[in-house]
Design a protein that fits this description.
The protein is mainly α. 74% of the residues lie in helices and 0% in strands.
Length: 234
């Protein structure tokens, strides 16, 4: 048979390349700081997200809001999604104008501070669907706005100051830790809520935002990263 011009890589070579790519991600000097930020940025949100629907549907006697499934669909499935999308668009635009470093802290607080609205809802248990919708709309708007910083941070990690040679693979690893950061806290959120009740649970959620704030203090970000490059006019 004639020789093919295409060199077919053996399974051993493919596995070796995988190990090299994987290792190159974890040998970075700031890897512990990176992983800490990826895992803690949504530590509070990950727990709240799992309990939002039960909180809405549980009776007021159980500490919930006593909403119907139709109400939940309107508040969280419609108003919440619209506000989340708007927040994400605004966040992306803001970073493109000022860069990730400039907007990191406003976005961190935009994600975390609105969790206090869940505390408000748990303690006041408003019967007005308008009040509940406003609270959830603001919470989702802030989350969408702040999540833009998280996505850009992962892109920055994969880029590695322009030196990243496995950008796609490293970004995929980041998304894996992003999923892990949601999964692990979510696994215990139901048990925590059972022990604390909704009121104290949402206070706990707010406390869980502190680790990411502490980690963010040590992040080093290029002021120009994320800014949209101006086109050069001839």
């Amino acid at each position: 048979m004639p020789q093919t011009d295409v060199t077919v890589k053996g399974s051993g070579n493919v596995f070796e390349e995988f190990l090299v790519t994987f290792k190159s991600f974890f040998v970075r000097k700031d890897i512990l700081l990176i992983l800490a930020f990826l895992l803690t940025y949504r530590l509070g949100e990950a727990q709240a997200l799992k309990l939002v629907a039960p909180f809405f549907l549980d009776t007021m006697a159980k500490g919930g809001l006593g909403l119907t499934t139709k109400d939940v669909g309107l508040v969280y499935g419609t108003i919440g999604v619209i506000c989340l999308t708007i927040g994400g668009i605004i966040g992306g635009f803001a970073i493109s104008r000022g860069g990730l470093r400039k907007w990191l802290w406003p976005m961190i607080f935009a994600v975390h501070i609105p969790n206090l609205l869940f505390v408000f809802l748990a303690y006041t248990q408003p019967s007005s669907l308008w009040v509940i919708s406003l609270a959830i709309g603001l919470e989702q708007l802030g989350y969408g706005f702040g999540f833009a910083a998280y996505l850009l941070f992962m892109i920055m990690v994969a880029d590695n100051n322009g030196k990243g040679i496995h950008k796609t693979a490293h970004y995929a690893i980041c998304t894996g830790f992003m999923a892990l950061g949601m999964m692990l806290p979510g696994m215990v959120s139901g048990w925590i809520q059972t022990q604390l009740g909704y009121q104290h649970f949402f206070i706990w959620v707010c406390i869980c935002t502190l680790p990411s704030i502490i980690v963010a203090l040590f992040l080093k970000i290029d002021p120009a990263f994320g800014k949209k490059k101006e086109e050069v006019k001839v």
